[in-house]
Q: What sequence folds into this?
């Protein structure tokens, strides 16, 4: 019986971890982190490790806005001017 309880606890921990991963909003990385850091360092500033991820979230937001604007104009094609906010 002791083994069954231990197995159940392990299974419960695994499902909790999986649930946390699903609830966390993770967007696919569209940017090259080293390039982002190099571009920022060119301005002689320090770069936090999570800065590229934050910029990636901004890029995803811009994409969403461009898609919404194209759809609002009855188009399926996203054009360069759709990115202007």
A:
């Amino acid at each position: 019986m002791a083994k069954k309880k231990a197995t159940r606890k392990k299974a419960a921990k695994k499902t909790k971890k999986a649930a946390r991963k699903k609830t966390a909003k993770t967007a696919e990385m569209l940017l090259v982190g080293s390039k982002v850091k190099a571009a920022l360092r060119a301005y002689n500033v320090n770069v936090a490790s999570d800065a590229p991820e934050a910029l990636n979230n901004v890029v995803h937001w811009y994409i969403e806005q461009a898609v919404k604007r194209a759809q609002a104009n009855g188009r399926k094609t996203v054009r360069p001017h759709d990115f202007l906010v």
Summary: The chain has three helices and no strands. The helical segments are 2-23, 33-41, 51-72. Residues 48-85 form one domain. The chain has a mean pLDDT of 84.
